[in-house]
Amino acid sequence: MPYLQGVAVAASVTTLSVIAFDRYLAICRPLKRHLSKKQTIGFIITIWAYVLLLLSPWFITYDLHSSREANATHLSCRSTMTPLYNRIYQLGIIFCLLYAGPLLFIVVCYTLVAHKLSRRTGNQDEFLRKSSTAQDKKQMSRLIKMLVTVVLIFALFNAPAAGTQHRTQQQQQHSTCY
């Protein structure tokens, strides 16, 4: 279970990064050619291959162990990684590449989007210029709140996944490792 759970979380995180980039392109580079259906499918395949590759050490190093206590057999899933290798893997791969890196990327994309949209008011066409500046400020405020909310939700709800995967790897009891 830890491997499949990690793959699902990592694929979701990577997909959210691609969505942030797509939103950046749509708003900041509207005249640039967007992704075709074939390219989108290629991105999806690349995301899953990337995640499966990064998390393959979990698949390789987990073993199912059984122990007999009080007339009952207990199965546990344990890692065979050395503590040093496990620490490097957790910090370098899990935290940096699958949490902090995507979080930073999403923050940069949405910051650029907010900046582009905040500058837009000076370059609007005649129809948009007639709207009140108070309404523009209110809409901009809503947009910034939404972007900050998206980033905070990502940071808060994925931080436990990134932080507890080490504990999960060491302590989780399952009947299967995958």
Which keywords apply here?
mainly alpha; 178 residues; two-stranded antiparallel sheet
Rg (CA only): 22 Å
Kindly state the number of beta strands: 2
Portion of residues in helices?
Answer: over 70%
Order of helices and strands: HHHEEHHH
CATH architecture: Up-down Bundle
| SS strand fraction | 5-15%
| Secondary-structure class | mainly alpha
Strand order of the largest sheet: 1-2
How would you state the average pLDDT, rounded?
79
Pfam families: 7tm_1
Keywords: G-protein coupled receptor, Membrane, Receptor, Transducer, Transmembrane, Transmembrane helix
Main location: membrane
Subcellular location: Membrane
General description of the model:
The chain has one domain (2-171): Up-down Bundle (Rhopdopsin 7-helix transmembrane proteins), CATH 1.20.1070.10. The protein has helices at residues 2-28, 37-54, 56-61, 83-119, 126-129, 133-171, and strands at residues 62-69, 72-79. Helix content is 74%, strand content 9%. α4 (83-119) packs antiparallel against α6 (133-171). It is built from six helices and two strands; from the N terminus they run αααββααα. The protein has 178 residues and is mainly alpha-helical. A hairpin with a 2-residue loop joins β1 and β2 (72-79). A two-stranded antiparallel sheet has the order 1-2.
